[in-house]
Write a structure and sequence with these properties.
16 strands; UDP-n-acetylglucosamine1-carboxyvinyl-transferase, Chain; Ribosomal Protein S8, Chain: A, domain 1; 8 helices; single chain; four-stranded mixed sheet; about 350 residues; Dihydrodipicolinate Reductase, domain 2
Length: about 350
């Protein structure tokens, strides 16, 4: 039984999701106390509870009784089973974080699987659905994974109701890769999605990003959504490089101007551009699990976060790998070794 303290390091939900994923894959049970202890609302929230329930369903795990607010659990996995799964978070909790926890596990299933998760697809504190396919998904495909992802319906806070669908086939073993350089930028574009709000909201966001990054009209895309998927708004900036894709995003908020929302995206993208890392800080933290499952590989990142350091510590509890970070002036290099 692996014993984990959820208050260590970054102290958020990623510790739990990584533990669930790797427990299912390795068959090693774990107990975690102080779940999300460093968050304003500690313990399990709806999206974390759904991650527990989803991984338990996929691998037939035995789990101690859990509910919203619970701060400790024990998880004893069984064999990972392929199937057609559907999970409803019941709130605007992040569908992307649930799907991201399921993806590595289902790569180890005994056949193809499909998963439909209902909830929030674009949340202030989680990667948007587009990120999962374009950024994280691109690297996973380079490592040998085969899957398709479809955003069937947007879900904004607080209503939720979005639907993200994953179809995935098993992969005997992910292949180690080296991702040290971005390569030349091939394409850049901005998208503003608006549902149940004035179309001018998206236009104002795009004006900021298109001017800041010299994108041109054809690369500034305003996307109107059905009103029943809102009210809500998100703006995305995608950089496609030769070897990696990065996405920067922000969510519209009541009382916050469209220009302020767009400038948040611009500031994050500018920090990435000023660095020499292949992956941005958020993507770097998510790449650790597939690189560890591949048994090796190296990648560079724009910034080494506490989130990434904590995730590395958890991974090393489950897998026979060592994760090393070498900080440089303009990037940090991560090396995973067996």
């Amino acid at each position: 039984m692996i014993e984990l303290d959820g208050s260590l390091g970054e102290g958020g939900g990623q510790m739990l999701r990584t533990s669930l994923t790797l427990s299912a894959i390795t068959g090693r049970p774990f107990r975690m106390k102080n779940i999300r202890a460093r968050r304003a609302k500690p313990g399990l929230q709806r999206q974390h509870l759904m991650a527990v329930q989803a991984l338990a369903a996929v691998c037939g795990a035995e789990v101690t009784p859990v509910d919203v607010g619970v701060g400790e659990l024990e998880f004893r996995p069984g064999a990972i089973r392929a199937g057609d799964y559907a999970f409803d978070i019941g709130t605007a909790g992040s569908t992307t974080l649930v799907v991201q926890a399921l993806m590595p596990a289902l790569l180890h299933a005994d056949g193809p699987s499909s998963v439909r998760v209902t909830g929030g697809t674009h949340n202030p504190t989680a990667p948007p659905a587009h990120y999962l396919d374009r950024a994280f998904g691109r690297v996973l495909r380079q490592m040998g994974a085969t899957f398709e992802m479809e955003l069937e319906r947007f879900g904004f806070y607080p209503r939720g109701g979005g639907e993200l669908v994953l179809n995935i086939v098993p992969c005997r073993r992910l292949q180690p890769i080296e991702l040290l350089q971005r390569g030349p930028r091939i394409h850049a574009y901005a998208e503003a999605f608006v549902a149940g709000l004035a179309p001018t909201v998206g236009r104002r966001e795009l004006d900021i990003l298109c001017t800041e990054f010299h994108l041109g009209d054809t690369n500034c895309r305003q996307c109107g959504l059905p009103a029943d998927q809102g009210p809500g708004n998100t703006v995305l900036l995608t950089f496609e490089h030769a070897y990696v894709t990065e996405i920067f995003s922000a969510i519209g908020e009541r009382g916050v101007t469209a220009e302020t929302v767009a400038r948040r995206v611009a500031e994050e993208a500018s920090r990435y551009q000023a660095s020499e890392g292949a992956a941005g800080a958020h993507l770097a933290g998510q790449l650790l699990v597939p690189f560890a499952l591949a048994g090796g590989g190296t990648f560079s990142m724009s910034h080494l976060s506490q989130h990434t350091l904590t995730n590395a510590e958890v991974i090393q509890q489950f897998l026979p790998v060592k994760v090393h970070f070498t900080r440089g002036a303009h990037r940090t290099v991560c090396a995973v070794e067996t």
